[in-house]
Design a protein that fits this description.
Elements (H helix, E strand, L loop, with lengths): L1 E6 L12 H8 L4 E6 L12 E3 L7 E3 L1 H12 L6 E11 L2 H7 L4 E6 L7 H7 L2 E4 L9 H12 L32 E2 L2 E2 L9 H19 L1 H5 L1
Parallel strand pairs: 1-2, 1-6, 5-6, 5-7
Antiparallel strand pairs: 3-4, 8-9
Helix pairs in contact: 2-4
Bound molecules: adenine (ADE).
């Protein structure tokens, strides 16, 4: 999979994909993340990318021309399955959306800044609006990083058995069960006996019950869907 990200703050996206699982995904050639600086597409001597809002109101708006030129330059190179705009008014990200996006080949992500982007960019190019939650970030970069991570780890071959996504929270609409590692007894704080029993069937049953209990307690909404 290839993911192209357009941003005015490329520096913000240098590091998130250079560690751990995202790094491994790229080293294995399963994921390519390319960050594009919008600034060179900006207008005039100062490479301006934003301007005042028509109709008045506080906050700058990202202009259509630089963004359009940047998007067109990328589209000239390859076809995109989705052109995603990260925005608080988008569809709320969940595991099912990440699962679906992980099946695609080429994705483009647009990071907004200031007040947001000119509506005509959305009408013209955006095929999917995504929000990572009901709160407002200063820009779309951190949201893009979250989205890339959640998709990247699902690509076949990225995770090994140890890190398998199959048992993640949400993968089956349930939160993950509690987990423990050595020592089995830390100053009297004990690991549940069942996990030390070696009885795989009983352990699986216990984990399922714990998942269900945790989901009922913390996220009953997941069970309603
Ligand atoms: N940009 C600003 N806030 C955002 C959010 N909550 N999700 C996605 N993109 C954003």
């Amino acid at each position: 999979m290839r993911i192209d990200i357009i941003t005015v703050l490329p520096e913000l996206l240098r590091s998130p994909f250079d560690h751990s699982i995202m790094k491994r995904a790229q080293q294995k050639g399963l994921l390519e993340v390319v960050v594009h600086d919008l600034r060179p597409f900006g207008l005039g001597k100062h490479r301006k990318v934003d301007d005042y809002q028509f109709g008045g109101g506080a906050g700058m708006v990202m202009m259509i021309e630089p963004m359009s030129k940047c998007i067109e330059s990328l589209k000239a190179e390859r076809d995109y399955d989705e052109i995603i705009y990260l925005t608080p008014d988008g569809k709320r990200l969940n595991q099912s959306i990440s699962n679906q996006l992980s099946l695609k080949g080429n994705l483009m992500m647009i990071c907004g800044h200031y007040k947001g982007i000119d509506e005509r960019i959305r009408e013209q190019y955006i095929t999917l609006d995504i929000s990572i939650g009901d709160f407002v970030l200063s820009g779309g970069e951190l949201a893009a990083a979250v989205l890339v991570d959640s998709i990247g780890r699902l690509l076949p071959g990225v995770l090994n058995d140890e890190t398998s996504a199959l048992f993640d929270s949400f993968q089956d609409d349930l939160l993950a069960p509690p987990i423990y590692t050595r020592p089995a007894d830390y100053n009297g704080l004990k690991v549940p006996d069942i996990l030390l029993s070696g009885n795989d069937g009983a352990i699986e049953k216990w984990r399922y019950e714990q998942s269900l209990k945790r989901t009922q307690e913390r996220r009953p909404d997941l069970l309603e869907d």
